[in-house]
Amino acid sequence: MGLMLKGAYLAEDPQPDTQEDGEFRRARSTIRNWITPDGAAGPTGEGGFAAKPGRYHLFLAWNCPWAHRALLARHFKRLADDISVSFAAPRRTADGWVFEKDGEFADSVFGASALHEVYARVSPAYTGRVTVPVLWDLERNVAVSNESADIVRMLDRSFDGGLRLYPDDCTAEIDAWNERIYRNVNNGVYRAGFARTQEAYDRAVAEVFETLDRIEGQLGETRYLAGDAFTEADLRLFPTLARFDVAYHYAFKCNIRRLQDYPNLWAYARAIYQMPGVAETVRFDVYKQGYFSPSPLRNPLGIVPAGPAIDWSAPDGRG
């Protein structure tokens, strides 16, 4: 993954996420400001970012699950007309996330050819990973945040429309699920797929399926993770589920079971997919292009598989 070091882009990170013990450890996000209703400072970062329609822009990539979180939050908060979006091209190159000159994978703000050109605008000596999502303030021409969890929360708390994703009456349940799902599922599939030792892979893949088993049991008792209403916890889980059978099962060796092998979890995933507008945030074809792109360790020839054929439109049966 690419890195900005004192304002210069490096295609190869001198400190990769996979450590000497074979474990994959994701780097922390480095831009942590917050949009708030009145522009006051949020839990981290500086103030000055008031919630205002048309002021903000998201840099995303269809195949990135962390970017998918932000796209879903924008959808559920009914902010599609208020927050504009640029999508990077499906496959990364030596320049990392890249844009095309025009079309659906063009940068509509700066006309950048690569995302690292956007990061170079953060500060002359910016150091950090070049990742999506990035939330940009068009009014001040500065970056707000590149932490997906913060972006989801700030869109929910700072804008009034749409669903309340983090309701006050079940924050403890949501927080508990978020913590468990992040480590063992969202990031767990990457810990399995990027493991460099058998031991690291065994630990990660076991935790992925232990947690999916636990979620399967929970969904036998409640419609959603925190009860009867769709919340932030469900939003953060869904991007991994959408990619599971089409990518993680094969490309990341998370193959003990498929999503389709879990009756409750598979029905739950289809129910979310069939919610109005959610299918428009999903691109199975792009997921395969991304996760099966050329990789010396995982897919040297870069051959993208034809399958699997999965019917996400089948009735979910959850009422």
The Cα radius of gyration reads 19 Å
In terms of per-residue confidence, which ranges show pLDDT below 50 for 5 or more consecutive residues? Answer: none
CATH class of the largest domain: Alpha Beta
The CATH H-level homologous superfamily of the largest domain: Glutaredoxin
On the 0 to 100 scale, the average pLDDT is 94
CATH third-tier fold name of the largest domain: Glutaredoxin
Q: Strand pairing plus helix content: what structural class? A: alpha+beta
Architecture per CATH nomenclature, i.e. the level-2 architecture of the largest domain? 3-Layer(aba) Sandwich
The proportion of residues forming helix, as a percent range, comes to 25-40%
Q: What is the percentage of strand-forming residues?
A: 5-15%
Number of strands: 7
Report how far apart the termini are: 43 Å
Widest beta sheet: strand line-up: 4-3-6-7
Number of domains: 2
Large-scale geometry: globular
Give a short account of the largest sheet: 4 strands, mixed
What does this structure look like?
It contains nine helices and seven strands, in the order βββαβαβββααααααα. It is an alpha+beta fold. It folds into two domains: 3-158, Glutaredoxin; 168-279, Up-down Bundle (Glutathione S-transferase Yfyf (Class Pi), Chain A, domain 2). A hairpin with a 4-residue loop joins strand 6 and strand 7 (142-145). The termini are far apart.
